[in-house]
Design a protein that fits this description.
This protein has 305 residues and is of the alpha+beta class. The chain has a domain of 97 residues. Helix content is 54%, strand content 12%. The strands form two sheets. The chain has a three-stranded antiparallel sheet. Helix 1 runs antiparallel to helix 7 and helix 1 runs antiparallel to helix 8. The longest helix has 48 residues. The radius of gyration is 40 Å and the shape is elongated. 11% of the residues are buried. The N terminus is likely disordered.
Length: 305
């Protein structure tokens, strides 16, 4: 009779091959499911960022880091959801939600923000010139001393901000130069500080830090800092939909449709995979092994007779 006899080893090999093929198919389905989930997360994050970014209104543009940080801190202390946006070489922008725009503008006017850019005398006398005069070198040195003194004074306890000015040597009409240096310091300190003790401490420090300076040539002006005012901003009336809101709705709707489409496609793939024709060859080795086993048993039974 024309039937093929499968031995025990061949049947085991056929079964192993069938299991391997079935496992590879399951792994491919798992990879498709994982990639679909990653795609869905990416679409969702993009939609959130698009909606959040389009809703904000630019309040200030092209600020340096100091101006942006001071303005951002003042707005956030008043519960205004401001955020700082880096523009690379163009500086920083400050953006706020449309509902907080009116309160943010009022805060800027009340606090005189953003602060003006710092004037650096050293920039007026660059160090890369061909010939530098002695007056330019001295002015640059005094400017650096001012900045260093300001940084050190702010490290003193109860001192919030400090601004130090040194008198620059200017020649008079007779040609004689002034050698004594006068110092004027503006100090913003915390509330509840003994101002007389603070003035004595500051004068002693400045007298020892700058040469050719006398106590009577040092002037200290004190200001008490205001406590942080944290209050909810005055909400403006809701404005009609503008182009930015329309854009945010369009982007958010498109991202939502894409997310739902991706999830539906993944579910369709999972439901279709068990019924696809690709799975039918996976069962063929099992059927062949069972059929061959039955034929072997029948042949052995006939031989025994």
């Amino acid at each position: 009779m024309g039937f093929r006899v499968f031995d025990h080893d061949e049947r085991r090999e056929r079964a192993c091959q069938a299991r391997d093929k079935h496992g590879r198919h399951a792994d491919s389905n798992m990879r498709v499911s994982m990639s679909t989930r990653r795609l869905a997360r990416a679409i969702l994050c993009t939609a959130c960022l698009a909606v959040a970014g389009c809703n904000d209104t630019t309040l200030l543009e092209k600020l340096d880091q100091f101006q942006a940080n001071q303005t951002l801190a003042a707005l956030q202390r008043r519960n205004i959801a401001a955020r700082k946006i880096s523009r690379g070489k163009q500086g920083y922008d400050i953006a706020v939600p449309p509902d907080d725009y009116t309160a943010a503008v009022d805060t800027l006017h009340a606090l005189d923000l953003p602060p003006r850019a710092r004037v650096d005398i050293a920039q007026a006398f660059p160090s890369d010139v061909m010939v530098a005069s002695p007056s330019a070198e001295r002015a640059r040195l005094l400017s650096l001393i001012e900045q260093r003194l300001e940084q050190t004074l702010t490290t003193i306890e109860s001192v919030d901000r400090a601004s130090v000015h040194l008198s620059y040597p200017l020649d008079d009409a007779s040609g004689s130069a002034r050698h004594s240096i006068h110092i004027a310091a503006l100090i913003v300190h915390e509330a509840g500080v003994d101002e007389q003790e603070l003035v004595v401490k500051l004068k002693r420090f400045l007298r020892n830090a700058v040469a050719d300076t006398r106590y009577e040539d040092i002037s200290i002006t004190l200001f008490e800092s205001e406590p942080p005012q944290i209050a909810p901003p005055a909400r403006a009336e809701p404005a009609p939909l503008d182009s930015r809101r329309w854009l945010s709705f369009v982007l958010g709707g498109g991202a939502s449709v894409g997310l739902l489409s991706a999830l539906g496609w993944a579910r369709w793939r999972r439901m279709r995979a068990p019924r696809s024709h690709a799975d039918e060859p996976d069962r063929a080795p099992f059927d062949a092994v069972v059929e061959s086993s039955g034929r072997i048993d029948n042949a052995r039974a006939r031989d025994s007779r």
